[in-house]
Structures are given as C-alpha cells and as structure tokens.
Amino acid sequence: MSAQALLAPQEVWFDAPERWMSDAVHLVVIGAGGNGSEVADCLASFHHALVSLGHPKGLQVTIIDDAVVREPNLVRQRFWPCDLGQYKAVALANRYNLMLGLDWTGLPCRFPSPETEMAIATADLVVTAVDLPSARRALAHYEGYFKPSCMWLDLGNGHRHGQAVFGALSPRHRERYPCVIDVSPELASLKDDPRKSCSAAESLGTQDCLINRAITTAGMGIVWELLRYGRTAKHCLSISLETGEQMAASFPPS
C-alpha cells in the first residue's frame, strides 16, 4: 500500500447500536407540521416494513407538538378536514395507532418542558422538524438526561430548498458526528419568526407544496439505512426543487 493511501482520510461511518436490530427503537419527533407530519408517515411505513422483514418489535415513536390543526395546514401537512381543531401530535399518533395497532404517543406540549423529559431520556434518535431556531438551540444545549448514544436528525427547509443534518446529540461525540448547530453556527443567533399563514394560499406562498415531502424523504433515507442496514456515512443532504439537484456530504474525515 502506498504512503499516499495510508495518509488519505478515512471515510467515517456511524454504526447503529446492535440492540436496534432486536429491541424497539425509540424515535422522538419534535414538530408535527410540514416536515414532522411527513416524518410520522415515513416512520409508520418503516415500522410495518421492519416487522414484515422479521424485526421483533419495530419502532416506538413519540411526537411532540403543542399546536392544533388549522385550515392552512391542510395543503402541506399530513392532515385532513376531519383533523381540524385537534392537537397535531395527538392526531398523528392516534391515526397510526388505529391503522397499525400501535401504541405511539402524541404529546401536545412544547419542547422543552417537564412533560417531554421522559421521551428525550429514552430516545434512540431525535428528529427535529421545526422552523424555530430556539427549539434547535434548546436541544443542542439540553441539560436533561439523554442516552449518550442518542443521535439527532434535523430537517429544515425554505420555499423550494431544504437540508437534513444527521449528527450526535451528545457534545462529546460531535467532533466525529457534528450536529446541525455545528454545521450551521448562525442558528445560535437567529431569531424565531412566529408569524403563521392565514390561508392555504398564503401557506403555499411561503413553502412550495412538495418541499416538505422532498426533504423528509431524503432525510429519512438516512434513518432507513440505519434501521435496515445498521450504518450510514451520510451526514448532510441538501435538495433543491428549483434545480432538481440533491447533494450529499459525509462526516468529517477521521
């Protein structure tokens, strides 16, 4: 082997814990809107697929969101007129519990709060699907208990573009597996935009109809690799509906 090959950076992989192959994998989804509701739908498919492939327990999912379903949510989110007025997290959990005989949990609470502490403490993977920088900062600097092995997938998007960042939740593992705060340090100072769309048409003016599904499908592909094959080298994904391009980046070389 040449000296050049010996000195070349080695590709970094994340290997899922072995128990993911035999125990129920607990995923916590923070946010049940455009991206979060798509995540929940993906996870329902993943659970059914894993059980069909012989996984003994599949997935256990907790969805956290204190918002209720409003009319503007019906065009870009996985909700229908029958869901209007219900808490988003509860409506999604109930839907898949009824469809698949599951025992998923919907917490109509804001993160972080005392009601969400147990969910984070038992999570194997946290998915943030929120449009508030403060929620990402709250998780990045979370002072409650969580498993040292817990990982973090963040999904975010604009009008016609989006990105997914997969990394570690624990600060001591972030040099090897950087999280979204490490990748996008500007999130440390960005202010929240609390404005809500007042109509379905206005909602489509701020985010295109398929952007949530597109970025969620890309990001959840990482989760499927972990659940099905036990490892991934994907760190960041970006997608543009305008150009049709999708790009992937690996973890920093070791």
Structure description:
The chain has 254 residues and is of the alpha/beta class. It has a single domain, classed as NAD(P)-binding Rossmann-like Domain (Rossmann fold). The chain has helices at 3-7, 34-52, 88-100, 117-121, 133-140, 180-183, 200-206, 211-229; strands spanning 14-15, 25-30, 59-64, 105-107, 125-128, 151-157, 161-168, 231-232, 234-240, 246-250. The protein has an eight-stranded mixed sheet, covered by helices on one side. The longest helix is centred in the N-terminal third of the chain and has 19 residues, at 34-52. It is globular. The model is unreliable at 1-6 and 197-205 (pLDDT under 50).
List keywords for this structure.
PRTRC_ThiF; ThiF_NAD_FAD-bd; 254 residues; disordered N terminus; Rossmann fold; 8-stranded mixed β-sheet; plasmid; 20% strand; alpha/beta
**Whole-number mean pLDDT:** 91
Helix content: 25-40%
Sheet having the most strands: 8 strands, mixed
How many domains? 1
CATH fold-type name: Rossmann fold
Domain THIF-type NAD/FAD binding fold: 25-203
Protein name: UBA/THIF-type NAD/FAD binding protein
GO molecular function: ubiquitin-like modifier activating enzyme activity
Pfam families: ThiF
